[in-house]
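Worked example 2:
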Amino acid sequence: MRHRYGTRFQSGFCLAIVGLGIGLGFLWLLRVLSLPPRVLPVAPLISSVISSPPPVLQYESRNLGQSTVHILHIPAQSRFRVTVARSPAVDSLTTLAQASGAIAAINGGFFDPSNQQSTSYVIQRGAITDDPTANERLMQNPDLVPYLPAILNRSEFRQYTCRDSIRYEIARHRDPVAAGCQLISALGGGPQLLPTMTLEDEGFITTVDGAIVRDPLGSRQPNARSAVGLTREGDVIWMMVAQVDAPSPSGLPLAAIAELMAELGANRAMNLDGGSSSAFYYNGETWYGKVDAAGNPVVRPVKSALVVEPVS
C-alpha cells in the first residue's frame, strides 16, 4: 500500500511541476505580446540615381574646302539663353558681345550702313527697339516701295517665356505670339531656309516668267553667310560660313546653308545678314566671314546680334 501511494505521489508531483512550467510559459508569452513593438534602426538607403550634368554649349568648325563653317549648338533647357543685343549706332560684334557679357554671339539683322538704321525689327524686353518703318531711306526708296509689305513682315527669331521655361520660335513678324507665352526678344532677318525657302514671299527676290530678275542677297552665289536654326527638341543652332582666300568665289549659297542646317538636325532655320556683316564670337575669339582680295578678313561693324548669356 505504501509503495502504491508513493508512486501516485511522485506522479502527481511531476504533473504539478509540468503544469507550473506551462503556466509560467503562458504568463511569459502574455507579457511578450503585451510589450510595444521594438523598432530596429534601418540603414539609410543609398540612391542609385545619378543626376545628369546640365547640357553644355557645343562648338565645332568644319572645313568644306570652299569655306570654313563655324557652328554652335545651344541645347534647350540648358544653363544658357539666346537673346538679342543691339547698338544705338553700329559696333563690332566683339564689342556687342563683351558689352552684354555674352559667351557667344553671331551677327544679326539687316541694316543700312549709310544711316546706321535697322531695316529689320528688333525687340528687347518685350518692346520694339529698332523699327524699320522709322528708316526713311527704306520707306522712301522708290525701288523698294512695291516690296515694303513683304519687307515689313519678314521672318524673325523669337525668345519666349512660357510659364517658367524659355522657348524659341522662328516666325513672320506679324504672326501671333505662341499661346501661353510672353515675347521677350526678337531679331528680324530672313528668308526662312527651313522647312521651305521663302525668298520671294519675303521680298528678297523677284521673278518674271520663272527667271530671277532681282536678287540683292545673291542667294544662288557662294558668299559669307550667317543663319540660325531650331531642332524639334528646341535646341538652337548657329552657323557662320566664312570665305577662304582660295578658291574664289568661296562661301556657300543659301540652298547649301539649308541643307547643312537639316544635316545638323534643324527643322526650322532662318537666314541672317551676311556678306561683310557675317561674324561669329565664341569664348573670347571672333571669326569674320568675308575676305578681301588679299585674303584678309573684313571687319564690319553691325547693328544687332544674337548672343548667348548664362541663365542666372
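The chain has five helices and 20 strands. Residues 1-20, 26-30, 37-51 have pLDDT under 50 and may be disordered.
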